[in-house]
């Protein structure tokens, strides 16, 4: 799918080690309306600090991203690298440096080999006419086992537009805006305030609703650029076109978020956790995240053990308002417990069969109010430990 006005390029800069393309560039031929959400961790990588300043005016035109080195916890030298990278890209493209977003992912605490990036920027810019967004999706992978990408079409005022996105992430995943990056581009013309609002809502319902291991990265970034090259009437809040754009954007982000969970480090299960009947939505999300982050629950998923008691225990310590006599729980359509009491041996057998599936849903009803939340998680396996025990090697 073509997203008008955007071009892409990747090169091998050998930032961590040679043998793969690890530096990517996304460029819009015109300044784009833009919005971004960054990690809320108090320890932020240098690219996050620089990009946050650059996007404060609500526009962007280029994004350079590397894998292999997070440029996090690198002090003033790391800030200087991110700033100089933006400056060199801007110089090569003939734009302002503040129009360049800089993103990194990889090992924390290692100084960036800037000379390799500096040497690669001319070739990166020269290659813009031949690249594709899928190439950038490949270049940003670290422990990912597959590239994550989604594209969809929409219409406004009789004009077709495209929304496309890529993401990376498999571990350190519980964004709150883990090494998680996602870049969304669209050729739709979208009003700035509406873009920011609908984008943040979409992030909350997607990337802020997933957890692989409960860890947040220093580099989490989700960014959107809308360059208006489709030529549609500007999309704003309160219109049918605005609603349709929000639906399309939500679908793209949710697809990418689910792909991240399915590619969770060592994961063999994809689990949707639905909490209903909470006193409010915030309580529902507290309960859902407690379930999705519980090592005991996640290892039970891996072992295909229908240990529903671990789930009730997680709900109990979640901080949500709970009355244990009203709790009910199901695996898919199999009721495991009702009003806080086990449903019996037949439920145990049928629930175990559900957990043998690669994908299933855990539904918990708190029985108190109307609050709801849905999050997506994976199981916890031996392979997760193996991957993270020697990540830096």
Query: What's the mean pLDDT score?
Result: 92
Strand content: 25-35%
- Helix % is 25-40%
Number of E-type strands: 15
Low-confidence stretches: none
The major β-sheet equals:
8 strands, mixed
The CATH topology of the largest domain corresponds to L-amino peptidase D-ALA esterase/amidase
CATH superfamily descriptor of the largest domain: L-amino peptidase D-ALA esterase/amidase
**Overall radius of gyration:** 22 Å
- Assign an overall shape: globular
- How many domain units? 2
Order of helices and strands: EEHEHEHHEEEHEEHEHHHEEEHEEH
End-to-end separation: 37 Å
Structural class of the secondary elements?
alpha+beta
Summed up, the helix count is 11
Top CATH class of the largest domain: Alpha Beta
- CATH architecture descriptor of the largest domain: 4-Layer Sandwich
């Amino acid at each position: 799918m073509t997203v008008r006005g955007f071009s892409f390029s990747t090169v091998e800069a050998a930032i961590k080690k040679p043998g793969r393309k690890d530096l990517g560039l996304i460029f819009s031929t015109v300044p784009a309306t833009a919005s971004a959400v960054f990690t809320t961790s108090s320890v932020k990588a240098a690219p996050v600090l620089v990009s946050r300043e650059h996007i404060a005016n609500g526009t962007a035109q280029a994004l350079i991203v590397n894998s292999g080195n997070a440029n996090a916890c690198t002090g003033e030298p790391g800030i200087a690298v991110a700033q100089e990278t933006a400056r060199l890209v801007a110089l090569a493209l003939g734009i302002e440096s503040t129009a360049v977003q800089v993103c990194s992912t990889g090992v924390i605490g290692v100084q960036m080999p800037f000379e390799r990036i500096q040497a690669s920027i001319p070739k990166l810019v020269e290659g813009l006419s031949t690249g594709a967004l899928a190439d950038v999706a490949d270049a940003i992978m670290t422990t990912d086992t597959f590239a994550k990408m989604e594209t969809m079409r929409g219409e406004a005022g009789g004009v077709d537009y495209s929304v496309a996105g890529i993401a990376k992430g498999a571990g350190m995943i519980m964004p709150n805006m883990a090494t998680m990056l996602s870049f969304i581009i669209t050729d739709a013309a979208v009003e700035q305030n509406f873009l920011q609002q609908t984008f943040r809502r979409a992030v909350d319902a997607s990337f802020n609703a997933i957890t692989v291991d409960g860890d947040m990265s220093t580099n989490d970034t989700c960014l959107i650029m809308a360059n208006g090259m489709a030529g549609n009437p500007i999309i704003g809040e309160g219109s049918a076109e605005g609603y349709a754009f929000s639906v399309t954007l939500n679908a793209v982000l949710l697809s990418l978020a689910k792909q991240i969970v399915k590619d969770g480090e060592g994961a063999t299960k994809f689990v949707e956790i639905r909490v209903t009947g909470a006193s409010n939505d915030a309580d529902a999300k507290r309960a859902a995240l407690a379930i999705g982050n519980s090592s005991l629950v996640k290892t039970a998923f891996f072992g295909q053990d229908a240990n529903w008691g671990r789930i009730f225990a997680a709900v109990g310590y979640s901080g949500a308002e709970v009355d244990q006599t009203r709790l009910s729980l199901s695996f898919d359509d199999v009721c495991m417990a009702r009003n806080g009491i086990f449903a019996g041996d037949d439920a145990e057998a049928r629930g175990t069969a559900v957990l043998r599936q690669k994908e299933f849903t855990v539904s918990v009803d708190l029985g108190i109010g109307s609050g709801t939340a849905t999050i997506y998680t994976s199981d916890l396996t031996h392979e997760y430990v193996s991957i993270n025990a020697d990540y830096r090697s």
